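Input (SseB protein N-terminal domain-containing protein):
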Amino acid sequence: MTHRFSSHEPTHGHDTGGVPWAGRTLTGTGFDGDSGTADPELAALLAQEAPDEVALVAAVGAARLIVPIVAVPSEIDDSSGIPVDARSDMASVTLVAPDGQRAMPAFTSTAALAAWNPDARPVPVTAQRAALAAVQEGCDVIPLDLPAPPGSPAATLRPSMVWALAMARPWRPAHEDEHVAAAVAAALAGESHVVSHTLAGAEGGALRVELELAPGLTQEQVRELLVSVGERIAADGEARARVDALAFAVRSA
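Output:
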């Protein structure tokens, strides 16, 4: 038998660092009986062309996800004249879109992961742990069940959804979110030119703030008002995390 480390003999009772095997305890992952199949409720929602997003995020939160881990070279040996990996580390996968948006893919089953990359190691995690990892890695979104390219994911969890999963709280669209409503109201407080406002959903999950303004404002005054209100909403960090995009619609009273 050829060993990767020529000076190491596993039967001598220790690892390559000299640490004895004896006394070590292997702890379970919490998914010891996991068959690797997708959660039925989540799979049914992902099969729909336009699933209810509230139900989808709730199903993701209750399901087990699988994140891919791949080997990346950490040390190159070129002593033979041909560079080869002398040592590799395992790392989670991060994808970067042309616009700079970062994504951490996750899968609902080992079959879905194998279809995307058969060499990736499947690691089962809770949805909260996956979301926390995405936030820590600076990933904006989590695509679910990426197919082998070319293609598109079965669904993509937007930043507000990832944040809700990381915080282990229910997700609501921004225009139905009480914290967002309070933040918008606070941002508009004292704006004498705003007669009334309503919140609505927009394309791509954006929040549309519809403002009824007093007549007589110039275009520049309206622009300054919108910039000021937008900055005040963004200053509320929790509201910013719950809003994927912000748009305004204005009309005269």
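Residues 36-74+85-166 form a domain with the Trna Endonuclease; Chain: A, domain 1 fold (CATH 3.40.1350.90).
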